Amino acid sequence: MTIITIPKHLTRKDLVLIPKEEYEALKRAQSPRVFKEVAMTKGQKLALARARKNLATGNTLTLDEFKRKLGLAR
C-alpha cells in the first residue's frame, strides 16, 4: 500500500484522487481545439464591412424589434 503525504497548505482545499488515465482524458478534453482558418470570400468581406459600418452608426435592431418586424412577437 502506498502512503501519500499531503502538504498542510493543501489540506484546506478539496482534493480528488483519480486514476492517471482518467486525468489524462480530462486534460485532453479541456485542451483548446485548433481550427483551420478559412479565407473569406469577397462577398463575405463586403458584408462584414457593411455590418461593422451599421454597428458603428447605431443602425441595428434588438432581437425583440426583429421578431416584431417578422411578426413573431406575442
Q: What does this protein structure show overall?
A:
The chain has 74 residues and is mainly α. It has a domain of 35 residues. The protein has three helices and no strands. The N and C termini lie far apart (67 Å). The model has no long low-confidence stretch (mean pLDDT 88).
The Rg value, from CA coordinates, equals 26 Å
| Percentage of residues assigned to helices | 40-55%
Overall strand count: 0
Q: What low-confidence regions span 5 or more consecutive residues with pLDDT below 50? A: none
Q: What order do the helices and strands follow?
A: HHH
Average pLDDT reading: 88
Largest sheet: none
Shape: elongated
Main features:
74 residues, mainly alpha
List the helices and strands and how they pair.
Layout: H1 20-30, H2 42-57, H3 63-70
Short recap of the structure:
The protein has 3 helices and no strands. With 74 residues, it is mainly alpha-helical. It has a domain of 35 residues.
